[in-house]
Amino acid sequence: MVRLKDIAERVGVSISTVSRVIQNDSSRNVNPEIKRKVWMAVKEMGYTPNENARRLVYSSEEKKRQTKRIGWLANPRIANENPYFSKIFIGISETLNKAGYSLLLLHSDDLEEENQFQRMVREKEIEGILLVDPVRKETLAELKKWIPVVGVDFNYSDHSLSVVDYDREEAAWKGVEHLVSKGHTRIGFIGGGVDGDLHLEKRFKGYLKAMREFGLEINEKFIVDTEWYLERSYEWLKMTIEQSDGDLPTGFLCASDLLAIAAMRAVQEKGLSIPDDVAFVGIDNNDLAQYVVPALTTISIPQYEMGVVAAKALLNLIAEESDRIDLKTFVATELIIRKST
Known about the structure:
Strand content: 15-25%
Protein name: LacI family transcriptional regulator
Pfam family, one: LacI
Number of strands: 12
CATH architecture of the largest domain: 3-Layer(aba) Sandwich
InterPro entries: HTH_LacI (IPR000843), LacI/GalR-like_sensor (IPR046335), Lambda_DNA-bd_dom_sf (IPR010982), Peripla_BP_I (IPR028082)
Order of helices and strands: HHHHEHHEHEHEEHEHEHEHEEHEE
Organism: Sporosarcina luteola
GO molecular function, one term: DNA-binding transcription factor activity
Largest sheet: 6 strands, parallel
């Protein structure tokens, strides 16, 4: 049986240091590199600090005890207040409930350092994790060694793990295609960036790709990174109209319905008509989109289905203990034509 003393000797630190790391004792600081070495020794030597952990460690002789508990890493507010993520959350929770699983909300701090998430896996006895909020690549790589993981939405589309998302470039392309089909050749873009860079955002990449394929001019004057703030969409378009001297796009692709709704207000306040003067296409199919005047044409994202698929993907990974394969699943998007075009 592995003891704290054995781990201390392997790492070259005192037993009390090993104990503080394993117990996540914050009363005294421990060098991050020492923490990493301690947890590496824990994993390599098979040390389990309590009976719950012992049951949760895989071995050739012992199967993991089922707890029917799934972790969900997301900002505590988004499941309730963000309509996009709330539908995903409902799909996840209903699917897991039907399978007899409960959902445990995790915080980003739980996965900030390797010692924290290893302790979290042990003490909370979760069988798998659904990730919405981003975690560091290094953390993700280590996390996958301990527990089945599925990423939901854009933060994980380019990572090496199972992911459920939609094709953002294709969605934007569909929006531009629809505007072109309505005779528009001057099309602007209202969106937000990733890590402060609009060019990293896939809906913007899809807009650029479509504009080039249709042979249309890309005018930087009519492209804005709102940083996802609705008021910036509204204020920017209002100012653009005031300074345009009539030189405006006849259509806008917006990276979200809410950004589109804010921009539509600016157009209407300036006495322009939608869609006669300016047409709008959003992306989401937010509940508000059908109730604004005029109703917003949008690319519908099946958020509820994303949640269902993500939950089922994680349950499959949990069941397939010996042969887990990472799969990327993109749900289909659909053009919903309303009065704004």
